[in-house]
Design the sequence.
C-alpha cells in the first residue's frame, strides 16, 4: 500500500507541472508528501490539525522525526493561535501560518434566536456513529435532562457501526420522543438552522467541519477538547467545554445554556467569532503564502 502511494505520487510529479506539494494529516500523508517533495525538489506545504499535533508531534515515539519534517517544510499551516503558540514553543519558526477552516457564505448566518424560558431546547449532533464519537454520552445526557424535567430534543445526523447499539438504548429507555435519528445527510444546514446547541462528545478529533458549520450558522457549541477546538472556542465566551465520557457534565452544560443570561452571552460570542470562517479571509492567507513560495 505504501509503495502504491509513492509510485502514484512519483508518476504525478514526473508527468505534470507541479510547483509545490500541499498535504494535510501529518501521519501518514504529510510524511509521504514531504519525502516525495525532497526526492523531486518541490516546495512543501504541511497542514497540522488536531491529533496531528496533540498526539503525533507531542507524544508519539516518532515525534523526533516528525518535528524534523515540520522544521524542514517550506510552509506550515495550523488551525489557530493556540496551536501556533504551542508549536512555536517547541520550534521557533518564521514560516507558520494560521489557515482557517472556511465556509461558503450561505453557511455563515448571524441569526439571533429569542430566548423563551419554557421552550424546548433543540440539540443537534452531526458525526459518523462510531465508538470514538461517543454519541452514547449525548443520549445519556438527554436521559438525565429528561429525568430532571428539562425540555430537550436531540437530532442525531449521521450513520455508522454504532447505530444499532444507540437505537437499542433509545428504545430500552423510552427516549424515542426525545431522540431522532436523521441518518446520513449531506445537507446539514436544514438541521443547524433549527438548532440551539451543537454537541460534540468525541475522544479524538482533527477539527470537526460539523462544528465549524454549526458555529457559522450561529449554533452554540458544547464540545470535548478532542483536537483543535481551543483554536476557535474560548470556554464561556463562544461555547462550553465538557469532560470526555461524561454525560453528567454534558447535561450540566446544557442546563447552563438554558439560562437566559448565558444563552445570550454565548450566542453573541458565536456570532462575533463567525469571521474566523470567512472564505475571503482564507483566500487572502493563500495569496500571502503563494507569494512567499514564489520568492
Sequence:
Amino acid at each position: 500500500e505504501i509503495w502504491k502511494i509513492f509510485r502514484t505520487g512519483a508518476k504525478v510529479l514526473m508527468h505534470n507541472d507541479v510547483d509545490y506539494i500541499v498535504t494535510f494529516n501529518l501521519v501518514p500523508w504529510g510524511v509521504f508528501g514531504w519525502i516525495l517533495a525532497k526526492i523531486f525538489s518541490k516546495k512543501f506545504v504541511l497542514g497540522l490539525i488536531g491529533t496531528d499535533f496533540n498526539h503525533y508531534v507531542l507524544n508519539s515515539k516518532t515525534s523526533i522525526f516528525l518535528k524534523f519534517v515540520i522544521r524542514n517544510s517550506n510552509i506550515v499551516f495550523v488551525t489557530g493561535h493556540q496551536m501556533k503558540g504551542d508549536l512555536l514553543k517547541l520550534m521557533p519558526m518564521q514560516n507558520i501560518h494560521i489557515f482557517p477552516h472556511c465556509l461558503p457564505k450561505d453557511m455563515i448566518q448571524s441569526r439571533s434566536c429569542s430566548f423563551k424560558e419554557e421552550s424546548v431546547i433543540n440539540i443537534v449532533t452531526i458525526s459518523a456513529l462510531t465508538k470514538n464519537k461517543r454519541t452514547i454520552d449525548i443520549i445519556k445526557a438527554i436521559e438525565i435532562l429528561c429525568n430532571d424535567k428539562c425540555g430537550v430534543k436531540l437530532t442525531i445526523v449521521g450513520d455508522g457501526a454504532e447505530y444499532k447499539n444507540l437505537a437499542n438504548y433509545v428504545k430500552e429507555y423510552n427516549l424515542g420522543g426525545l431522540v431522532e435519528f436523521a441518518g446520513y445527510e449531506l445537507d446539514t444546514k436544514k438541521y443547524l438552522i433549527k438548532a440551539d446547541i451543537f454537541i460534540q462528545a468525541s475522544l479524538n478529533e482533527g477539527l470537526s467541519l460539523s462544528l465549524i458549520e454549526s458555529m457559522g450558522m450561529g449554533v452554540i457549541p458544547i464540545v470535548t477538547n478532542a483536537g483543535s477546538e481551543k483554536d476557535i472556542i474560548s470556554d464561556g465566551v463562544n461555547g462550553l467545554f465538557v469532560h470526555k465520557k461524561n454525560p453528567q457534565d454534558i447535561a450540566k452544560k446544557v442546563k447552563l445554556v438554558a439560562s437566559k443570561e448565558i444563552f445570550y452571552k454565548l450566542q453573541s460570542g458565536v456570532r462575533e467569532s463567525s469571521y474566523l470562517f470567512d472564505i475571503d479571509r482564507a483566500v487572502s492567507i493563500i495569496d500571502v503564502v503563494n507569494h512567499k513560495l514564489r520568492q
Remarks:
- The first strand starts at residue 20 and ends at 24.
- The chain has a mean pLDDT of 93.
- Residues 133 and 202 are 4 Å apart (CA to CA).
